[in-house]
Specification:
It is built from one helix and five strands, in the order E-E-E-H-E-E. It is an alpha+beta fold. The radius of gyration is 12 Å and the shape is globular. The relative contact order is 0.25.
C-alpha cells in the first residue's frame, strides 16, 4: 500500500490518500506552502480493511504522525 501525503514544511499532515502498490499514484491538489510526498504506508494500513477501518487508520496517522523529511527517503514519525 502506498500513500500520497500532503504536509506543511514542518511535516504536519494536511491530508493523505492511500492506493494499492503498483497503481498509478494519486496527486491531490496542494496549496501554497504545502508539499506532496509519496511513501510506503505503515503496516497497519492495508487494502483488506473495509472503508470505515481504512478511514479510521488514516485519521489516526494524520493525528499522531508527521512526515520526517530529514533523510533522502521521507518517512512517517510519531509526533512527540
Amino acid at each position: 500500500m502506498r500513500l500520497t501525503v500532503i504536509h506543511d514544511s514542518s511535516g504536519n499532515i494536511v491530508s493523505m490518500v492511500a492506493y494499492p502498490e503498483g497503481s498509478p499514484p494519486m496527486y491531490p491538489e496542494t496549496k501554497p506552502g504545502q508539499h506532496m510526498t509519496e511513501m510506503e504506508a505503515p503496516a497497519h494500513i492495508r487494502l483488506d480493511l473495509d472503508a470505515r477501518q481504512l478511514h479510521e487508520r488514516l485519521s489516526e496517522v494524520m493525528q499522531n504522525y508527521r512526515v520526517d523529511m530529514g533523510s533522502m527517503k521521507c518517512s512517517l514519525t510519531r509526533k512527540s
